[in-house]
């Protein structure tokens, strides 16, 4: 009860006797909502969209190592040397196919994920950077492409560098801003 009263005072600035549980809950919700707006949520989505909007040139096709399905190569390799247009929530591929760009999802990739570790290699080979040489903080956005037979595609970025990858788990096009 003493902790609850202390919490009441911290949120309200009023003596603990003057504030009820409802006020504490309202204050806590307001603090959490403010934190989401400042540190994540809608603003993070806008910032991520703004960062990658524009024309991008596929300068290289890279493989994470291990066994790769031919389907992954067939869809990603033709991007090499061509431009990809990213506008707000759509991605237009050189083939003319337009895909919906999903919401950003923060993930931590490790070198033992998606074929790295067992067959050697590192996400650094694809241009990702890591503060500890093991964990790669990335933002992944799935693409929803209407064409049948496409492997799941994503755009992968890092907030602290200019790397933009477009691909599917094991095969990626490295995109460079035009």
Verbal overview:
The chain is an alpha+beta fold and 178 residues long. The chain folds into two domains: 2-39, no CATH class; 53-177, no CATH class. The protein has four helices and nine strands. The chain has an eight-stranded antiparallel β-barrel with strand order 1-2-3-4-6-7-8-9. A hairpin with a 5-residue loop joins strand 3 (90-92) and strand 4. Residues 1-19 and 22-47 have low confidence and may be disordered.
Name the structural class.
alpha+beta
Mean pLDDT: 72
Q: Widest sheet: strand order? A: 1-2-3-4-6-7-8-9
Number of domains: 2
Summed up, the helix count is 4
Note the overall shape.
Answer: globular
What is the β-strand count? Answer: 9
Percent strand equals 25-35%
Provide the low-confidence segments as ranges: 1-19, 22-47
Radius of gyration equals: 22 Å
Q: What letter string, H or E per element, gives the SSE order?
A: HHHEHEEEEEEEE
Major sheet details: 8 strands, antiparallel, barrel
User: Share of helix among residues?
Assistant: 25-40%
Please report the distance between the alpha carbons of the first and last residues. 60 Å
């Amino acid at each position: 009860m003493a902790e609850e009263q202390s919490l009441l005072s911290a949120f309200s600035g009023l003596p603990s006797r003057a504030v009820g549980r409802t006020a504490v809950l309202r204050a806590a919700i307001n603090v959490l909502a403010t934190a989401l707006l400042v540190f994540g949520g809608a603003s993070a989505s806008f910032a991520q969209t703004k960062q990658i909007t524009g024309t991008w040139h596929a300068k290289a096709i890279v493989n994470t190592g291990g066994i790769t399905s031919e389907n992954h190569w067939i869809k990603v390799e033709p991007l090499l040397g061509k431009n990809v247009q990213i506008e707000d929530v759509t991605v237009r591929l050189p083939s003319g196919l337009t895909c919906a760009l999903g919401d950003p999802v923060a993930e931590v990739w490790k070198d033992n994920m998606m074929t790295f570790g067992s067959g050697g290699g590192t996400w650094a080979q694809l241009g990702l950077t890591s503060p500890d040489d093991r964990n790669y903080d990335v933002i992944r956005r799935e693409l929803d492409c209407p064409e049948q037979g496409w492997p799941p595609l994503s755009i992968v970025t890092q907030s602290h560098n200019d790397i933009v990858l477009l691909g599917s788990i094991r095969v990626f096009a490295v995109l460079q801003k035009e």
